[in-house]
Protein 1
Amino acid sequence: MINTNIAIIGAGFAGIAAGYAAKEKNLQATIFEATDDWGGLCGNFSVDGFRFDKAVHLSFNEPELVQKLFLNRPHYAHSSESRNYADGYWVRHPVQNNLRELPVEERIRVIESFINRENIPDAGAENYWHWLTIQFGEYFAEKYPARYTRKYWGTDAENLNCNWCGGRLHQASLEEVLVGAFPDATEPDNVYYTKVMNYPITGGYKNFVAEIAVSLDIRCGYMVTAIDTAEKILIFANGESCRYEKLISTMPLPHLAKMITDDEEVLAAADQLQTTSMALISVGYKKKFDFPTNWFYVYDEDIPFARVHSPSRKSPDNAPQNCSSLQFEIYYSREFPLKFTDDELIFKTIDGMERIGVAKFSDIDILDCRHVEFANVIFYNGMEENRAIVLREVAEHGIISCGRFGEWDYLWSDQSFMSGYNSLQEVT
Ligand SMILES: Cc1cc2nc3c(=O)[nH]c(=O)nc-3n(C[C@H](O)[C@H](O)[C@H](O)COP(=O)(O)OP(=O)(O)OC[C@H]3O[C@@H](n4cnc5c(N)ncnc54)[C@H](O)[C@@H]3O)c2cc1C
């Protein structure tokens, strides 16, 4: 049996940060990771010389500690410009500020929608759909964000609350909308919530924490299958076990709940905690495309992917010389399950790729399809109450739960890192 002072479940950015904080305090900590590599959602995989992160992954580095650690690594500072594709048109992001790229009839309908919007403070919104109509009016709300919501959040906008959207979605003034609609007016400023997106020069996104990770005791291939919180023992799928003094977990709350309790109320609450999952279709091209932005959004619902990013544009180190790459993100959920086999998804993705005009089938060198079970926490109305029930139970069992799926929140990687780092304060 392994003995450790602090056991940390999961070697994503949160688990690594918890291990780093323990090391700073000279505490013995062991990180147990289910898969064969560290990095979690920020990890990557390679296919014939093409490296792919698991979805877009760029860093905005808000907290001071994250700035110090991440930006210490050689990195690119990219612009946060991006684009949207909808119904045959490419429009600079966000659509509401850049209507000039749409046909005149569409611009008029959007402006009418905006002028006729419900004029009440957004704090009064009943749900995300209501919030969208307050911001943009019904026509724009349905045509752009609500359509995208079905593709990205795997549910209808009516079913979501607004606790995640403030600050992430630009709330335009009428003047901004009008300036953006006239081609002869000055081009609007980039209003994305961050201007600079950082990315390591080599090694993919996870390289931001590589130096830290290699200094820690990380055991890969250790999937926790049972936890005896009374005896303080972890059981692993590989047959081994570990006795711990303190336990930090970054595993998804619904999985953790099942391992520690048979309380029906808690298990029912845990079952209501849902995320989107994603299919990642990763494509390497034989030639070097100059994609104009690092990522873009696709609104058409008969095209399966919601967002596309270019690993080779983020860093040429992600592709062989004179080649390039894209990764297509397709989301699904319990409510909107995936309707296609992997082969059908690949076929539909290539069809969509040709339709939006970014590349042709004959340009493709390699293709890969894989799935990520836990992507984005879905902010269903009432989600917070269920989360509170589960977190209370977890705390009663002496477990410190942190990270994106341990806090059960829409955390970026820097926030997940800080969540793991701060979790150590609760241990000591
Ligand atoms: C589509 C998408 C795009 C994103 N883009 C960005 C971006 O551009 N910028 C940004 O900053 N953030 C981005 N994020 C967010 C970022 O990925 C997360 O904040 C971060 O990766 C979460 O880290 P974590 O350690 O909390 O969780 P994870 O990365 O999920 O790590 C948890 C780890 O626990 C392991 N584990 C689970 N169960 C067990 C078990 N039973 N036993 C042992 N190990 C277990 C898992 O294998 C995993 O390695 C994005 C997320 C998604 C889904």
Protein 2
Amino acid sequence: MQELYDVLIIGAGPAGLSFARSLADLPLRVGVIERSSQATLADPPEDGREIALTHLSVNHMQEVGSWQRLPAEGVSPIEAAKVFDGSSSYSLDFDNTSANLDALGYLVPNHLIRKACYEELLAHPHIELMPETVVEDVTTDAHCGTVTLNNGEQLRARLVIAADTRFSETRRKMGLAAGMRDFSRSAIVCRMEHSTPHHQTAFECFHYGRTTAILPMNGNRSSVVVTVNSKDARQFIDMTQAEFNHNIERQMDGLLGEMQLTGKRHLYPLVAVHANRFISERFALIGDAAVGMHPVTAHGFNLGLRGQATLARLMANAIAEGEDFAGEAVLEAYEKEHQAATRVIYHGTNLVVGLFTNETLAAKLARKATLRLANNLPPLKKAITTALTEQEGKTLNPLHELKAHLPPLPPLPEVTPVKQVRSKLVQALPEKLHPLNVLGLR
Ligand SMILES: Cc1cc2nc3c(=O)[nH]c(=O)nc-3n(C[C@H](O)[C@H](O)[C@H](O)COP(=O)(O)OP(=O)(O)OC[C@H]3O[C@@H](n4cnc5c(N)ncnc54)[C@H](O)[C@@H]3O)c2cc1C
């Protein structure tokens, strides 16, 4: 007889693990299927990604307990950010004091997030984790979904969730179309030490032909992200360490003094994905499987956290009302809310990438104008800061208002250990923002 679950999550990446944790207080039998081994989940290898977390995400991780599992030295506050264009020393500046915040956001290595989410799940052993298991097929009907594993075994669930990367095979198998944008650019990410302190400042330098981002880690260390045309990416991996150090020092114009590569260089081809629909019968996409972002606005995992929390909240509400937690009403509500939360930021990010990687004169002038406008129009700057930091005191905690009304957890079956973006306007502008001044033409 096929095992019957309430929810089966495909993929124990940070999104899948976070969703499993969000469901842990609900009276549901939840299984998580993951290709990697238990040992890899317990101690994921460094992958070079340093994730900038917004305040909303940090609040959520604190509420569910995974934040407390991060080693203090692994969390680096970002107190200021400077955006440069071309070889100009003019920068668009953000800082925590004018935003009235301790930090604009927090940088945490991806592997530590994965580890913390996994450890948090271990504290909820009724969530069944199935490591070293690959999903080969998924079908659903009005009543349940059937997941076929690589060992031939079939599992059934009232709801199947795909959290299996931006190239989600499950999404394809379920016939959900997605808009994809291949930027034909790749990011080379690594850690570097430097002789001059960064003062917890992030630098985004849109040089012509390439972008260099410096994200401040604790001490005189930074995460360096170089984005270039994919045909040129390999040379950044193959350069000698000394050549690479010198290259980054020159790009930063000596701002951080002498720079020294520490550790490996990782290569990520940049492809952004937005599924046209996030749901099907008894099925939903979360994390990168729903929306895979270009990293420039640092929103991928932040949106993933938001989406899983939205779905979990809607499911919890349905359970509290005695309704079907995986029915059409819940899934359509998730679709509506998460599409609204992601579409603008997804297309806005792609527009920013387009503007800052376009080498025509018009684009170069437009980006200089954009930086000056954003710097000199306080409401616009505040709007950007609010969007990027998500500092408003909201909560993503799905069970925030509901906890007291939920039925108690049912007795648990015997489980294997946790297997887990003119004229009137111009007149209104201050003189320094007149287009001719902005473009340096008078
Ligand atoms: C260079 C870079 C920098 C980034 N910086 C930021 C940032 O600053 N801020 C931010 O918010 N985001 C950032 N991101 C995005 C962030 O890393 C992702 O959004 C996040 O890791 C996605 O998590 P996920 O769980 O959805 O998917 P993944 O981490 O891709 O995990 C998917 C899991 O599914 C498993 N899987 C896949 N197929 C199967 C199958 N058939 N059967 C079983 N298991 C399967 C995989 O093994 C994997 O464990 C960045 C990304 C990159 C590349």
